[in-house]
Design brief:
Length: 423
Amino acid sequence: MPMQRRSFLTLAAASGAGATFLGLAPQARALSTLQVDVSRPVRPVSQVGSGTLYGLALPDRPPVDLLLPLKLNTLRQPPPNHDHFPNGETEHVGDVLDIAGNAIEAGADITVDMADTFSGFPYNWAGWDDWLGRVDRMIADLRARPDITNVTAWEIWNEPDWTWSGSAGSFNDGWARTYQRLRAGDATTPIMGPSYSYWNADMMRGFLTAAQASGTVPEVISWHELRGWQGVDSNIRAYRALEQELGIGPLPISINEYAATDEIDVPSTVNHYIAQFEREGVRDAERAFWFEAGTLNGLLHNNQPTASYWMYQWYAEQTGDIVSVTPTQYNDAVAAYDADQRVVSVVFAGEAGDNTIQVTGLNDFGSAVTGTLEYTPGSGRTTVVNAPTRISTQTYPVSNGTASVLVNDEDHLGAYRLVLTPA
């Protein structure tokens, strides 16, 4: 099959992976208990995992009314007047100048994927004079649009571990040269990188050591997580340890592509990515771009919601603080508690069979809570799902600040939302 826009490394890994690669629960599981502690806040709610790559294609693709319910955090888009035709597109799509209006209306930030100025993938490098001229034009094109106020980073290159041209010299030297050219024309917008196609401590150490020596350490660090959700948290912790080793940071982290081809449209697996991003404190994270542009990377089909759309809407509706979750082997969750409204929202997924969601820290809720349980299936990227399914609304006792909710016959591919309020 033809090479897709994203990393060949991930395509190779995903080609024979199936359920083992996804890390999905087997069909028969003993009872497990996912623990949520609302008394232990992690960070304010900000929907860090609600990001896309080429999620917006044109000013009306998708319509802005489908963006608003998702409270999108960050959109990773190609630069002004680019020459890139991703994933079989026959027209220029995603240009930051074209989509900025809808992004601003939706409240989303934009990071500019500068390497996508080029045609081809890997990119058709045309020499340093051409590249630096393109950098200058990108800066000038954005400066000519003072209405665009939501660009939060220049991203110098995409997946340089395999797309950087050998004729351009070493990537680390090219990074420093491009960083300096950017700073000559734009002194303030953060610069992001290196955007490796996967986490590799040795590559990152070499990059940061060279950047320290040249005075070009990025303001935002970035790499991709495309090899399965297992271990995302340990990769982020390994990066933080590397910062301490090198005496830099802590820098904001952008996981600016996440989820492999057979994960991206499974609500359960993307929920696992988002849960780890929230726990580990990343700045933003963007769904990978494997198929069509302008679909929010599969959240929409023909401008109608798929099953995954509803999981991201539940995530968007969380308010207050993200709170502590102790996952099981397969169940994980993004949980939030709004102390002012006294509302707990738990978006969870992963296990099969009968499982329990245990929520502690409910001392201010009285002796009982009302719990509403909803479900969205794992029905893929081309099946329209008009609304999630409400499974139940019932009262649960609270004992010593703890309520337990049994979820019968959990679907390991779908996702669920549990909302608790005082009864």
